[in-house]
Specification:
By secondary structure, this protein is an alpha+beta fold. The protein is 37% helix and 25% strand. The chain has a 5-stranded antiparallel beta sheet with strand order 1-2-3-4-5.
Amino acid sequence: MYHDEIRQHCLSKPHVTESLPFDDQTLVFKVGDKIFAVLSLDEPTLAVKASPDEVLFRLEHYPEARPPRYFDKRHWHFVHFETQTNENLLREWIDRSYNLIVESLPKKIRASLNL
């Protein structure tokens, strides 16, 4: 998948915003104030946010995934992929990360966003 396709897929989700908070080569996609994906524009990498259980599942079932540098079962982490990974797989992971983040938002915020 190309950067533009990944970007468009992330932005196709309801109430997603993008920003360049770190540098002008790293796009961050958020719902509310929660990040669900980070796309490096100067490298072919995409990082998606996952719960500890999701991280373990993804690393076990998807050899394309690169683990976080440090793993702690008490915290959410980013799982990294090459953007040349199968397009359907990348879309699935972006969707899953988005849904996990939406589910983690407080009910008040979800209601205000109509999610």
